[in-house]
Specification:
mainly beta; 3-methyladenine DNA Glycosylase, Chain A; globular; 8 strands
Length: 201
């Protein structure tokens, strides 16, 4: 079942980042559907979070998407190479987001293999946020798309993890965020091979 619009309006981005684990992220591009189970996320806590693009209320053409009401996608280019897919959450004007860092391929595996030019058995196919987005065909054209639409959406397939299966650790690549870099706001599934490195918990 598709997640309802109201799901994304939750103002507790840490809850969402954890709750999204096990949900299934779908894309439909040129009639081809691919999907993966979300197995790694990171929470970004709006204007208060030094790691967030919206820290201190920063507003640019790029970050404006974050200030929308939750339930749309925020896709940006990292290092000029990787498209990173984020879920905008909370109410309008509160720029919270959840970065999807890894998925476990579920549907359309042959298409995912073609996009990534590697076998589905290789963890690298959808491990790490750039790879996860590429596996599902997500690029900058997905920025601002409605997550309840026909091009990109999330479903609940009843996959649940217990607290002892979920690891909370500091986020990756946010050293610039000073003390906020140490916050345990990266959530992942223990022993899932698609979780990005380092994953020795």
């Amino acid at each position: 079942m598709k997640l309802q619009f109201s799901y994304y309006l939750n103002q507790d981005v840490l809850f969402l980042a954890k709750d999204l684990l096990g949900k299934v992220l779908f894309t439909q591009i040129d009639g081809e559907i691919t999907a993966g189970i979300i197995v790694e996320t990171e929470a970004y806590f709006g204007v208060q979070d030094k790691a967030s693009h919206a820290y201190g209320g920063r507003r640019t053409d790029r970050t404006e998407t974050l200030y929308n009401q939750g339930g749309i996608s925020y896709v940006y280019l990292c290092y000029g190479i990787h498209n990173l897919f984020n879920i905008v959450s909370s109410v309008e004007g509160e720029p919270h987001a959840v970065l999807i860092r890894a998925i476990e391929p579920l549907i359309g595996k042959d298409i995912i293999e073609l996009r990534r030019k590697m076998a589905i058995t290789k963890a690298a196919i959808s491990s790490g946020p750039g790879s996860a987005a590429k596996a599902l065909g997500i690029d900058r054209s997905f920025n601002g798309k409605d997550l309840a639409g026909e091009e990109i959406w999330i479903e609940d397939h009843g996959i649940r993890y217990t607290d002892d299966q979920i690891v909370a650790v500091p986020r990756v690549g946010v050293a610039y965020a000073q003390e906020d870099a140490l916050l345990p706001w990266r959530f992942c599934i223990k022993d899932n091979k698609y979780v990005s490195k380092p994953n020795k918990f």
